[in-house]
Amino acid sequence: MTPERFQRITDLLNKRQPDLTVCMEQVHKTHNLSAIIRTADAIGIHNIHAIYTTESRWLSGGRASGSQKWVKVVEQPDTQTAITEFKQQGMQVLATNLSDRAVDFRKIDYTKPTALILGQERDGISETALEMADHHVVVPMYGMVESLNVSVAGALIMYEAQRQRLAAGLYDSPKISEEIRHQMLFEGGHPIYAELCVRTKTPYPPLDEFGQIAADRSWYQAIKDKYNKLPADSKSRRVDFTHTNQQFELNPNSFAD
User: Which domains does the chain possess?
Assistant: First the structure.
């Protein structure tokens, strides 16, 4: 890892906002999925959530300009489970929906821990999400159109959250734990060795103050030997760090001081 890349990844991680997330409910069009993840990365959102009723998988390699490598995706079993978890983490839940209780999205206080629910392109947000949400929000419109593309509406709301958080100084100090920082530094700075570690079920080694692997020759030899003993299918199976079983949920007690 070059010093420049180490600094760039460090700067990125220092700005991450683990108490701000997006939950995509049945959003299935690839260009919308990609756009939402790309925007989330640009905002500094650390992880997003996806709810599906099918076994379909999405965001194959190369889409979202690699943003999915930096924004972890958590697949939720259903809407009720997802929103219950958000509330247990102390998050306010927002649903994009035009209703009698809806308010202008700019009137929400996004400096609070927040989960934004974005609904399916055709049918919008489910009744379960609407009932469980703390607030309904809308983007004011004064033309003939009745709604914006889901990724566009999501981007407007996410950038309002960023604006408020910048003004409140919430980007000024790191919030993610050292454990997550180490994992993302290793995966981002040493992707080949990260893949080898995942394939051989080897814990990531420590990194020094410059982001270089702090391990002796025996570590390199051991992981090479483990890899050589793997069956062919284990060597060829794709490794997707976006969908690893690592936990990236908000844990206020794990925030760095």
Answer: 17-167 (3.40.1280.10), 178-254 (no CATH)
pTM over the 0.85 mark: no
Q: How far apart (Å, rounded) are the C-alpha atoms in residues 253 and 257?
A: 10
Class of residue 91 by CB neighbours under 10 A (exposed 0-12, middle 13-18, buried 19+): buried
Radius of gyration of the chain from its Cα atoms, rounded to whole angstroms:
20
Strands 114-118 and 47-51: unpaired
Closest CA to 71 of 100, 99, 51, 42: 42
Pairing of strands 92-96, 135-138: parallel
Per-residue tens of pLDDT for the chain, all 257 residues: 888 989 999 999 999 999 999 998 878 778 888 888 999 999 999 888 988 765 445 444 444 444 557 888 888 888 899 999 999 999 999 998 878 888 999 999 999 999 999 977 667 788 898 899 999 998 888 887 777 788 899 999 999 999 999 999 999 999 988 888 898 899 889 988 998 998 898 999 999 999 999 999 999 999 999 999 999 888 877 776 654 444 434 443 443 33
Give the residue among 235, 243, 231, 227 at the shortest CA–CA distance from 61.
Answer: 243
Q: Which long-range contacts (CB under 8 A, 24 or more apart) does 192-198 make?
A: 193/223, 194/241, 195/239, 196/223, 196/227, 197/223, 198/239, 198/241, 198/244
Coil/strand/helix, residue 173? coil
Q: What is the DSSP letter of 74?
A: E
